[in-house]
């Protein structure tokens, strides 16, 4: 579970996103960060029951920096107003298939899959779906997957059929996707409860077949 003080810090940061305020409240940030690292450690330990690769993850390295890179952004706010935990079988997620936990008051979630793969990987994934549509559909129609996520996210999608695929392809809506992810919202109440770890571990386990399919596609 996550401490209420962590959410209190993030809410205050949302209202006071400047270096002066942050410097005064640096100790509160350090406590909140330690809470998130502990949360990640517990998730990785519990997830290692179904996937031994979780034993190798170092939680502190998977928790993302709160400092924003504002060099090329119109938004010059110096800090993110959320904590992020990004992880894959290899460790911290920096590309490829994996999972991400977004911690923000009123907007938390856990997601998994492959977010905006580069063109070469995207082409391979679409080809794999085309060749093995029944296998892919079995994954996203599985009752456990649907219970945890409902469906794939269709937010990142082309308006028309991708090159090399006809408009009447039986999987055209899947082939139009630019990201292959599933998202599970996490309420503040849940994250403050003893059920928080189990809820994320269930999502990690449910997303594993999708991650495996995508990882195999880009080999």
Please identify the top-level CATH class.
Alpha Beta
Number of domains: 1
User: Which parts are unreliable, with pLDDT below 50 for 5 consecutive residues or more?
Assistant: none
Mean pLDDT: 96
Radius of gyration: 19 Å
**Lateral strand order in the biggest sheet:** 2-1-3-4-5
Kindly report how far apart the N and C termini lie.
36 Å
How many β strands by DSSP? 5
**Percent helix range:** 40-55%
- Portion in strands: 5-15%
Number of DSSP helices? 10
What does this structure look like?
It is a single chain. Helix content is 47%, strand content 13%. The radius of gyration is 19 Å and the shape is globular. With 219 residues, the chain is α+β, with helices and mostly antiparallel strands. Strand 3 (98-103) and strand 4 form a beta hairpin. The longest helix has 22 residues, at 26-47.
Layout of secondary structure:
Blueprint: H1 4-15, H2 19-24, H3 26-47, H4 59-62, E1 83-88, E2 91-92, E3 98-103, E4 108-114, H5 119-131, H6 133-140, H7 143-149, H8 172-175, E5 180-186, H9 188-191, H10 196-217
Helix pairs in contact: 1-3, 3-10, 5-6, 7-10
